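Example record

The entry below shows one chain as it appears in the dataset: sequence first, then structure tokens.
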Amino acid sequence: MPAKLHPPRISRARITGGFWADRQRTNREVTIPCVLDKCDETNRTRSLRLEWKPGADWEPHHFYDSDLAKAIEAAAYALELEPDPELEARLDGYIELFARAQQPDGYLNSYYAQKGFADRWTNLRDMHELYCAGHLFEAAVAHFRATGKRTLLDVAEKYADHIDATFGDGKIPGYPGHEEIELALVKLAEATNEERYLDLARFFIDERGREPHYFRLESERRGEVFDRHRHDANDYPSAYAYYQAHLPVREQADAEGHSVRACYLYAGMVDVAARTGDERLMEACRRLFASIAGRRMYISGGIGSQTHGERFSYDYDLPGESAYAETCAAISLVFFASRLANAELDSHYADVAERALYNGALGGISLSGDRFFYANPLTFHPTAPHLPHVRSDAERQPWYGCACCPPNIARLLASLGAYLYGVSGDDGDSAGGGPTVAVHLYAQSSLELDVAGTAVTVRQETNYPWDGRVVFTIDAQAPVELTLALRIPAWATGWTVTGPDGAPLVADAAPAPGGGLIIKRGYVYVRRTWTPGQTLCLDLPMEIRRTHAHEAVRDAGWQVALERGPLLYCAEGVDNGEALADLALPGEAALTAEHRDDLLGGCAVIRGSAVRRAAPTAGSGAPADRRGTPTAPLYASRPGRREVPFTAVPFALRNNRGVCEMRVWLAEV
């Protein structure tokens, strides 16, 4: 069961203009330098110098290494797209710190190097050693591919060899409390052609959830006392679920526990299943994805509704105002869904990847590129008191003590070209016609291929997501046989595909070369021999959609959300005034889209008319405030209402005009 497709190298899948080019430019010029600077300013770099001594005014932290590794990975992707000698030299300096901090046996963790080697590998549940190693491996592969230098890759291989010698059958039967190393080991195996790393990834996946639970055994060795009220308690079932260790992974039915850890694990499971032909493991991935996308995902593509533990809770429990929906969680869902899209070539997976990318993940960073959200609630009121456990800030922050999100969004944006396409040879499922290029996401871009010795470039010209017209041009030195598989989003109705001669193509069960098209699992396959310069046009109507939640989502009952194309919209107080809960959309009201070049970097807004509830007025006998002034009654008879203009903006672009109230779900009358 090999994967049908593989992602292209980002140097061969380049975003060339439009919506994402602007964000990549800001990421390269602002975000990546900002993240590296913050690592320098907040002791993450300092920790790698191994300078800490007892009594110092700072402390190393057990996940500091991962933040710098993710920042290096993001910068390496930027280097692969555009050489920058100054940035490359800066990375060389960080890599030298990692190399110096590595121990003779290959072990590499700045926290334990300074806090005591005797305790290393004694608390896999909490201490993130394997998680930090995974991010180092990803950074090493990215840096090697961008520069051709082995400086960090050699460090990573030496550390991976140490881990391989430490864990496995007949060795330590443990696995990470915070998953990530699983997918990273697959990347390292591919970069080095070392199968042992793939086998190690499979071991960590297979060992998880087996009894006796390893986390209980190691905690007993540490002399810990059982506490059933902690999410990491030894024997409490939900404690193991927090780490996705309550059952062996092939037996798990629902997405459980910490949402970021979960989707990192699931992404690694897809990688291992696709490369080893493990159908039972792939079936588990399908089942867990269905749990997320069908019952435990916000309309924004955010996941992890429960603040305590940053975790999944239960089916349809999706509160808007207290939503955690961490930026990293949406990013991890992009990783998981994109891998399934390549493994299965089913549009359902790419639809979810697109939703999470455009809404749940992108909203985690400001247009300026230097401020970030950790949590992404669907309702925000700046005057409401925030409970201490609710980690939704009034506005994006320049950094966090737990700073996983800023470098994570930086590496996603820098590598985005690899998520647009999936490429395969003629594997028997491409409707014939040579290699298949699947287009999972639409963006102005170019993809370079080699087809039977002929250099081919597939170009997209589009103003997506503001406009649904996408024109593909096939540039080649000679005629080339190629199958394009174009995703038709679930929201698109009335779409058309126009062939090189300008005539619409129609579905055909067995099209002749140069003829019609096949529709399968949400992808339109266009098979033909392309002559140089031929074009193909896909039109996706961008209608405004009123979307209603499943009836079991209690927080969204009798309410509506607005969507257009891949984008979720929200109402902000800066456009609509205060008290957005008093705003309602008439069911028959017309809504129109208008592109505003002068707003939020240029975006399409939704305009229309809404009604606003008239507040009860103070009267005789009404209670008085603290100053003795009569106030409106707390409860009154049916209020009046008045018509008001209404504006909605993309959810991902909220909070770029100052702190104000925001709401996704609106009452519908």
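Notes for this example: The first strand starts at residue 13 and ends at 15. Residues 18-41 form the longest helix (24 residues).
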